[in-house]
Amino acid sequence: MKATAKAHTNIALIKYWGKRDEALILPTNNSLSVTLDGFYTTTTVSYKPELTKDTFTLNDEVVVGEQYNRVTNFLNKVRDIAGKQLYAEVKSINAVPTAAGFASSASGFAALAAAATKAIGLSLTESELSRLTRQGSGSACRSIFGGFAEWQKGEMEDGSDSFAVPVAPKDHWDIRVAAVVLNAKMKKLSSRSGMKRTVETSPFFKGWVESIPSDLEAIKQGILERDFHKVGEVAEANCLKMHATTLGANPPFTYWLDTTMSVMQTVQELRSTGVPAYFTIDAGPNVKVLYLPQDEEKVLETLRNISGVTDVRLSRVGQGIKYLED
Ligand SMILES: O=C(O)C[C@@](O)(CF)CCOP(=O)(O)OP(=O)(O)O
After folding, report:
1. What global pTM score does this model have?
2. Which ligand 1 atom is the nearest neighbour of the CA of 27?
3. How far apart are alpha carbons 196 and 301 in whole angstroms?
């Protein structure tokens, strides 16, 4: 009763930002992401009859509190589906430089869902696995797939039709993502809390949701046609609209720091010199920059020279869930 799975993190090009149902983690809008090869989580789940509760270690450190509760609550869902009252030892290793500000919960919950279901004897389809993973962390449901994936919000109240579907495979298009790590340490609002406050209080939220369908259509067309300018422009504008909603929340907030804006402005200046590069930002100050392979050297050198940047981590398009031999 043991299994190991590896899942990669993903970066949203059309953001998930707002829930219509907190308990079931159902979104107000569809979102679309690219899975990255540079950042991943490997998780081993072993169900042991002698255990009287779940145990969880992350990078060999025992995890307790809120993070532990989210894992054991998730395992309760797996136990319900399997109809087995078994507790598990969960060991996760994150090859996601936490400082890079990546939501390692995306690769973390995808790897957990895959290993936990396989170890207990379930063999879910990718859609079933994505739908289950969504209940751990919304954005994680997109990491089941490699390449480009769209999380369809679904219409059903029970979330039975809310899961990700592949848009294009890993080898469809070799675009690159640079994760720009800033030296800032800020107590930030988690994405879960940030989107909750936004949904409940921001007058800009309605406009945000209304603008998604046309963004999605445009970016999917761009991906299929490998039109980098189109994909980049839509992704950058979508990110800016998402962050604009936070400024209208009550109380207002932003994830951006001065260094965040320096990177944003540098990327736009780079573009004006003819190098196609676009940024996107999630629930934190760090910036992810989209670029093409032929511009890697120029982009890397430019980003590294921005004051306040401590590291730039490069990624290619990554693959979906993989089960590893124990
Ligand atoms: O990834 C995106 O689409 C955009 C964000 O990263 C933020 F910019 C949201 C991630 O939210 P998540 O951590 O999945 O929330 P949960 O469902 O409350 O666990």
Report:
1. 0.96
2. 17
3. 38
Cβ proximity of 94 and 130 under 8 Å: no
Other Cβ atoms within 10 Å of 145 Cβ, number: 28
In a domain, 323, yes or no: no
Query: By residue range, what is the domain housing residue 60?
Result: 2-173
Centroid of ligand 1 to alpha carbon of 17 (angstroms): 7
Q: Please report the pLDDT score of residue 187 as a whole number.
A: 65
What pLDDT was estimated at residue 136? Answer: 96
Cα(244) to centroid(ligand 1), Å: 16
Q: What is the pLDDT, as a whole number, of residue 193?
A: 95
Same domain, 146 and 25: yes
Which of 173, 192, 214 delimits the end of a domain?
A: 173
Q: To which residue do tokens 């107000």 refer? A: 28
Claim to verify: residue 138 and residue 224 sit in the same structural domain:
no
The ipTM, to two decimals, is 0.99
CA of 316 to the centre of ligand 1 (A): 21
Gap between the Cα atoms of 118 and 162, Å rounded: 21
Domain boundary among 154, 173, 192: 173
240: CB partners within 8 A, 6+ apart = none
d(CA 90, CA 208): 38
Name 5's bridge partners. 43, 323
Length of the chain in residues, anyone? 326
Q: What is the pLDDT of residue 188?
A: 78
- Residue bearing tokens 């970066």: 11
How many CB atoms are closer than 10 A to CB 325?
A: 5
At 90, which helix (H) or strand (E)? strand 88-95
User: Pocket residues for ligand 1 (CB within 6 Å)?
Assistant: 12, 15-17, 25, 31, 103, 105, 137-139, 191-192, 282-283
Check residue 97 and give its pLDDT.
62
In the chain, which residues have pLDDT < 70? 96-103, 185-187
